Amino acid sequence: MTSLNAHANELASVDSLAPIFKASGDPLRLEILRVLRRDTFGVLELSQMFDMRQSGMSHHLKVMHKAGLLEPQREGNAIFYRRPLHLDSDKLTDQTIRQIFETVDRVPLAEPLQKKIEAIRDQRADQSQAFFSRHAEQFREQQELIAAFDLYAEPTAELIRKRAGKQEWQTALEIGPGEGAFLPVLSGLFGHVVALDNSRDMLAKATRTCIDEKLNNVDLIEGVTDTLLARGDSFDLVVANMVLHHVPSPADIFLDAAALMNNGGCFVVSDLCSHDQDWTKENCGDLWLGFEPEELTSWAADADLVAGEQLFIGLRNGFQVQVREFWKTSRPA
Questions:
Q1: What is the per-residue pLDDT across 121-148, written as a single tens digit (0 to 9) for each?
Q2: How many domains does the chain have?
Q3: Could you read off the pLDDT of 183-192 as tens digits, one per residue?
């Protein structure tokens, strides 16, 4: 009887694999899985990327979602798709899905497809940059509709102070400094600080902060992380305060931060947890409605960064902020 039950369980396990292999047994669907390795794309974006009608793309995505290869992510009124965040290492179906991901990821994306992905990212970046150009004068007011600066800046600063006191750190980078309100903290802890922003209007405000606060060890650079990578810069600490939900590809920020950090360096992130308050897109220029903590952890792992301390701050208006640290090579005690 025992052997019969075991055989029946084996058959049931095999049966559960059939939808996965059927859903992945299509070249287009494998390509979709590849472009979603680190990014999250909407149906319309994927339709543009693969030159097909939206109804056809929706069908493919539905089949893949039903098989567990993808999961939907609501961003306001739009539905985006990503690879599943939770895969159980002890579950046969999840092991199979993970193996499919690992296999397709070995094949580099074709250059034309990569260019289409870059074009979509550029569209998102232009959208974000245009917002901050229009609303530079109301930046603090807009941001504090979500979270007052001190509510996330002080815990982030305290975490950095605690770590900097135990490390021989000299250089720091802040990605997206906004008006430069966090730069006095970094300037007081590090010998050299770089502030990087792609908005000339916001850099002008950060420059004024540096002048007013006499921050003589801060360099302000207009550009993106690729700008610093091309220069060969490196840092002991990289900080991104409430920035990820404004960037076209948050996962790439983790890759670039890792590439810009010295061994033993730390990437500190404060950002919103996933929420459903769609008004932030229009009022605050948000591209993403926050992130699941597992998303940040997954992106960090892809960049060979080790997750460290984490703090979650609940706000009265329903938002929640996560403060996270990710280490290059190893996490200190």
A1: 888 888 877 776 675 665 566 666 677 8
A2: 2
A3: 999 999 999 9
pLDDT digits (tens, 9 = 90+) for 153-199: 999 999 999 998 888 899 999 999 999 999 999 999 999 999 999 98
Residue 74 lies in a domain: yes
232 Cβ partners below 8 Å, 6+ apart? none
**Residue whose token pair is 């996560």:** 322
Domain region containing 27: 2-109
Tell me, what CATH number does 204's domain have?
A: 3.40.50.150
Count of residues for the chain? 333
